[in-house]
Specification:
Helices cover 41% and strands 18% of the residues. It folds into two domains: 11-196, Jelly Rolls (Sandwich); 206-312, Homeodomain-like (Arc Repressor Mutant, subunit A, Orthogonal Bundle). It has 326 residues and is α+β, with helices and mostly antiparallel strands. A hairpin with a 6-residue loop joins strand 4 (54-59) and strand 5 (66-69). 35% of the residues are buried.
Length: 326
């Protein structure tokens, strides 16, 4: 959560900070001629940022192929296979063989270089990964022509420059720019997310729900009721309950409880006592907190206090790119 009390509530930043989201740039893909590639490794959030040319893409080879052009960014949540190709007709025959690297440390497909793309992965601690995966739709496509995509063009240009040069601080600059690229892509998607989009993260873009989420994230220990949350949003209790469930997949107070329990788990892993954690997340009694924690997390809070935290903290998602795995 944010340290500065001068900043207004920002639930999306709170969520990304809590998840400890970190983005890594896997490399640069250069392709030309006729080519197609199926990216079959799942359970990882990936992004593809096109910097030159165009390509066709499909999820699980089942959806109708869609065109992506220079300046566009794709984000996949790791639940379905993404296929890219120079021609839509090549998608069904795409393979998964390793992609070779050239002497310039670039991945290459086909012949020529009329298409270039930056690829990367999003790192999330393993015990928090499911929370982000469920919040995102299978695929986000932000077009470079969109008004909200303006910052993406600058970020992509800077990333290309940093990758081509070896100035001091290069690694830190690339890491920071990649992180901003992911956040700006989320922002651009949220600006146009529809009710049909899957993933509860789209609720963060709803003007009234964002007020409710700001209350929950800003004061998670407060004794919020449906009535006073509805008042904050300028809605009736029924309207808020229906809208929140439609967008977030659960009632407002259920989200409040879940967020409290995720915060509680973090504190337990940091070594806080159960009584201390219970008070921090708004529970007057340790027994009430323990019951809520077990209901949400499926284990008692003492599980983390007995040393399981060491195992959980070590089981982080590895995203170090291997040779041939773009």
């Amino acid at each position: 959560m944010r340290d500065s009390s001068n900043l207004p509530p920002d639930p999306l930043s709170d969520l990304l900070d809590f998840l400890q989201v970190r983005c890594d740039l896997s490399g640069r893909l250069v392709a030309g001629g006729a080519w197609a590639r199926r990216f079959a490794n799942l359970d990882a959030i990936k992004f593809c940022a096109l910097t030159q040319g165009r390509c066709w893409y499909s999820l699980d080879d089942a959806s109708a192929p869609q065109l992506a052009e220079s300046g566009d960014v794709l984000i996949t949540n790791g639940t379905r296979t993404l296929t890219l190709a120079s021609d839509a007709r090549l998608i069904h025959g795409a393979g998964t063989e390793p992609i070779a690297r050239d002497d310039g440390d670039q991945y290459r497909l086909g012949s020529g270089q009329d298409f270039t793309m930056l690829g990367g992965k999003v790192r999330v601690d393993a015990d928090r990964q499911a929370l982000l995966l469920s919040g995102l739709p299978p695929l986000i496509h932000v077009r470079g022509s969109a008004v909200e995509a303006g910052p993406l063009a600058w970020l992509l240009k800077q990333l290309v420059v940093e990758m081509q040069n070896h100035r001091p601080g290069r690694a830190s600059a690339i890491a920071g720019l990649t992180q901003l690229l992911f956040i700006q892509t989320l922002r651009a998607w949220l600006a146009h997310a529809t009710d049909d989009d899957k993933g509860w993260l789209k609720g963060f873009a709803d003007p009234r729900l964002s007020l409710v989420l700001g209350c929950i994230h800003g004061e998670p220990s407060r004794r919020w009721s449906l009535q006073n949350l509805a008042k904050q949003a300028g809605m009736s209790r029924t309207s808020l309950a229906v809208r929140f469930r439609e967008q977030m997949g659960m009632p407002p107070l259920a989200y409040l409880t879940q967020w409290r329990m995720y915060l509680a788990r973090r504190e337990l892993l940091a070594g806080e006592s159960i009584a201390e954690v219970a008070a921090k997340v708004g529970y007057a009694s340790e027994s009430a907190f323990s019951s809520a924690f077990k209901r949400v997390m499926a284990v008692a809070p003492g599980y983390y206090r007995r040393g399981a935290s060491g195992e959980a903290s070590e089981q982080t998602l590895s995203v170090v790119p291997e040779r041939g795995d773009f």
